[in-house]
Fold each of these.
Amino acid sequence: MGTKYSLESKFDLAIVGGGVIGLSIAAQCAKNGWRVCLIDRGAIGKESSWAGAGILPTGASGPVEDPIEQLRQLSDQVHEEWARWLYDLTQIDTEYRRCGGLYIARSPAERATMRANCMWWDELGIEYERWSLDQVSSRCRMLASGGLASGMLAPGGLADPSGPSATRAEYYWVQRDAQVRNPRHLIALKAACQALGVSLVEQAQDLSLQADGTSIQSISLKSYETGNLLKIVADRVCLATGAWTGPLLKTLGIETGIYPVRGQMQLYRFDRPPFECVVNEGHRYMVPRQDGRLLVGSCEEEVGFQKGTTQEMMDQLASWASSLCPMIQHVPLETQWSGLRPGSIDGFPYLGTLHPYTNGYVAAGHFRHGLHWSSATAVLMDQHMRGHKPLIDLEPFRLHRGNVP
Ligand SMILES: Cc1cc2nc3c(=O)[nH]c(=O)nc-3n(C[C@H](O)[C@H](O)[C@H](O)COP(=O)(O)OP(=O)(O)OC[C@H]3O[C@@H](n4cnc5c(N)ncnc54)[C@H](O)[C@@H]3O)c2cc1C
């Protein structure tokens, strides 16, 4: 006797992975009329997508050829529309806003990187301004001018503010940079999915994919709530399992270049926002939320699937943040956490068909940009899975490219 499964009704699309990518695809496909099932082995929207900062740097103003910039540009447009759409549908305010981004370069290496950035922004037609220290200080009063002017020597260590590097710190302002409060965005997406009739399966246990040589026939799992074994059958199956996509694809005999990259984060509690914009320096940033909470992040650590924070990184983040905003030392550190970004070997996400499975699809590997690129990913995957020509050519994002067999 084989194992007894109860068969769930048949779907147009089953998505495995309920982070921002899976949720966005589910919402978009359900909006366009498909019967969708979204399955997660944990709680929906609680992994990397929850852990992130929600920074959405603006995209190019005109036509662009670079595939990543095309993705950024489309995401930028779709996020703006979705913030309104999600609010109308769910009454949840995701705090999406074009808050602006301040970019600070204190060390010689940061200045060199910023100059390259500026050349790229010029090419893309992204508007920015070079600011003086006075402009920064008057716009962001809580940033200390001493800290702003001094060059960083080592993580947390500041150069002499009167030394030679002091006068050379540079500041750039991008008015159209945006942010979204990602935990709220996820709650809104989940509510939208529910309103659109998406079947949500959380805490799925022992999930496995059944496939023959050319198609994925079903997804079997054990329900956490009832203990029942379920078999989910769908015309199409899309994997959106973030950093964990590699192990799942291995069960189908497919290798990817996706690997986990840990990022750590701190959350401080001010009475009101210490400044309005996102403050960036290299890979570090501060993101003010409207209720006075301030996120400080982050780092890139290749430690496998190991989550958790380290005292060393917490000290580095606190030291960096207080060098720019000394008030941080006087407000409570509310909490700290880490998340596993889905890194990809060449920096491009994997979007498209899961060859050799003609009804299998993948949307994963968005690394530091998944919250941003999720909206474009949803639009493009919906078009691709329907057999329509996507707005952006997905060829550069195909699974089997260059360094992936
Ligand atoms: C500290 C930090 C800061 C960040 N800041 C930003 C930012 O400012 N802007 C930005 O755009 N991006 C940011 N990111 C990156 C962004 O969060 C990720 O790129 C994005 O969340 C990836 O979304 P995802 O849906 O692919 O993955 P996840 O959110 O990790 O979701 C994957 C889901 O799949 C489920 N799953 C995994 N394996 C299985 C399985 N076998 N069966 C069933 N379910 C499974 C998991 O439980 C999880 O819910 C940040 C990330 C971190 C960690």
Amino acid sequence: MQQSPMLIIGKNGKTGARVNQRLQAFGYETRALSRSTTPSFDWDNPATWLAAIEGTRAAYITYQPDLAVPQALPAVQKFVDLATAVGLEHIVLLSGRGEEGAQRAEQVLMDSGLSWNIVRSSWFAQNFSESFMLEGILAGELVLPAGDEVEPFIDIDDIADVAVAALTKSELRNKLFEVTGPRALTFAQCIREISEALGKPVEYTQVPVDAYIDALQEQGVSQDLQWLLRHLFTEVFDGRNRAPTTGVEQALGRPATDFRTYVQKTIESGSWNPLAQGKSA
Ligand SMILES: NC(=O)c1ccc[n+]([C@@H]2O[C@H](COP(=O)([O-])OP(=O)(O)OC[C@H]3O[C@@H](n4cnc5c(N)ncnc54)[C@H](OP(=O)(O)O)[C@@H]3O)[C@@H](O)[C@H]2O)c1
């Protein structure tokens, strides 16, 4: 058992929380941070970084708001330089498939001389239940600018398992795991599966990307997020990522979780129950 804790950047994030919970269950000491923790870690405030990294041995890193945004590259470079200077040994970086900006940031880590892993992921299935698509599902209609293109959505419990394996198994070091779910689906097909399993009507409506971004602007969504969603729906979601990969199996020796299993788990968790949402709000 190591003497120093594992650093997790993104304590309450979708994957960070899962990685933290798994490491703790395995008996590892963790230092899980974000802007609201003490000490805090803020990607927009490098003055917070040294205290976060010092004394840790390995780190799981999720960049905010997304590794594809232009400011990610200099931030990751600066983080990796600082980590190297203070003796961090190993970084596991969460990245996105088919995103040039994200891949430039990956390269910084791979060239750093530190021990590394990249977990390069497809779209998260949990975007339907823990992120920007939840509201539409609860309202009975998901509106997006995505058409017939398919995506092999990944259950992020698989990402957390891969990240923990990468952090704890030395034989997996210095490898890039391109991880996806086993089945590629359109958004309309995902909504159909969710609707059928829930036993209540949820519709999928496709709108032009400009109309979608205009609606986000009216809702007061930040410029950064508007840029990101336009980038994802116009450039990244063009078919380049449609093929499922075997990255989960390579890392874990078992197949990736099917979307159907994710849907069942999510129904059991109550995340798509409007009453449960109302109570927790
Ligand atoms: N969503 C997808 O489909 C997808 C697919 C592939 C890759 N990715 C990658 O996943 C990464 C995000 O990981 P995730 O989804 O696990 O995280 P997440 O759920 O987006 O993390 C949310 C947490 O990040 C913290 N946070 C926000 N701004 C921060 C900042 N400036 N500095 C430090 N912490 C901040 C917030 O906590 P506080 O308020 O306490 O700070 C918040 O609770 C991105 O880099 C993205 O590129 C996403």
Amino acid sequence: MGMVFFVLGLVFGSFINVLIWRIPRRESIVFPGSHCPDCGKTLSARELIPVVSYLIQKGKCIHCGRRISWQYPAVELITAVGFAFYQWREPSWAALVSKLILFSLLIVAAAIDLRHKRLPNVITIPGMVLGMILAFAGWSVPIGSSLLGLMVSGGLLMAIALLTKGMGMGDVKLAALIGAFIGPWPALASIFIASLAGAVVGSIYLLITKQGRKTPIPFGPFLAFGALIGSEIFL
Ligand SMILES: [Zn+2]
């Protein structure tokens, strides 16, 4: 079963790549089919096999030779590992589905924030609603926990955003989304882990690149990372 979910994750990961590319560009996520962003050639089934195509084509488009970002196979692999992990970890189908939805939302949000330094409302707002619906349906945390999580987690980042200039409204909404999925305590733990990771990675990054302390570093990927850990340790 783990292997089945790994393969399922690879396939779903290539769909996540489509979302990551198209959502910030406001393109339709259904039409047209996957194509090379450089030469526009529509990709054939053979070129769409996750990870394998990338390796066979040595990371290049077979039509125009343009380099394909390593981000594609990376996202596919991460999604596959996540799917296999949650299948192994979650006892019920309901819990599994709600974890996979949260996991997928976090990957899309983190990757877009990393690239474009923003967290689109198209992901965070429906994500928050979905988190509450899943709780209401009894698939994740109790509904009271979900609502409290949303308010506590979003409220804390809202306060930080108002007091400092480093946090954006996108981060506030992503934190609220996480709270709606996993409840208040795991969400607070996630924010704590995210801040710690952000401080460490941020300082190293600024040291290596010799940039000033004013350089904006997106917080979304750290929040996503924090939530992945926080939701496993404290649930
Ligand atoms: Zn091409």
Amino acid sequence: MSEKRQIIRAETAGFCMGVDLALRKLDRLVSEGGQPVFTLGPIIHNPQVMSGYARQGVSVSDDIRQIPNQARVVIRAHGIPVDLEDSLLARGVKLVDATCPRVKRAQRLIQKHTAAGEHLLLLGEPDHPEVRGLLSYADQKAHVFEGLSDLRGLDLDTRNSYFLAAQTTQDRGEFNKIMEYLQGYLQTSLPVLDTICDATRQRQQEALAIAHQVELMVVVGGYNSGNTRRLAQVVDGVGVESIHIEQPGELPLEKLRSAGKIGLTAGASTPRSLIDVVYCKLLEIEGT
Ligand code: SF4
């Protein structure tokens, strides 16, 4: 006799607030019609969503020299360096700022502390677009490092005043260790900016809680989406197999048929409609 598969679906799966806002701004711009629309880099790390926008005439460019002066340009949720923004504005390009409000807040705070003469210590990935944007508000007075061991290798001039901040998606535990280390090392008061966004942590915690109750976990999202890949790693880390897919058609049906309970989660750049389709497909799989 066959029975329906039990699926535990994460409530936090799918778009975070920043991605949702950015896509709404882009949708509004596309629906207005008019001059060509560009995004500086992919607005979202999801190939299916990006192809949909390409069909509606949205172009992606990493190089501002390729963007015509009359274009309308959407700044994505990660934000952009301030000099790029200035050059686009100087050329008369219409900018639509879809920088996530949390990233915007981090940029403003960094600018404020830099103006007060402090040097930024930033926990983050040096090549990440959000980090490049944040650093641009620190007026060259910044060190970026990827963790405590990286930070220990920096030659910090203790005569400077420093402040500490993090890329929004960094791990709070690591950040707290770094803060304690710096407070001991610098022996002066260290302003600490609260810039970490809990959207990532909440998704990871829920994925972990579900992983403890299931045999297999399906993780939906772009292969190029860092936060989606990290969700799969979190699940693998507790010894539960994760299956990372971009499209419903990639579900390994045979394997899923022989599993007990199945978990389902998705990265912050995965549309709800896609998660719904995967959920329905999983429900249709019958056990034996
Ligand atoms: S993860 Fe957080 S900071 Fe990043 S875009 Fe989403 S809401 Fe904004």
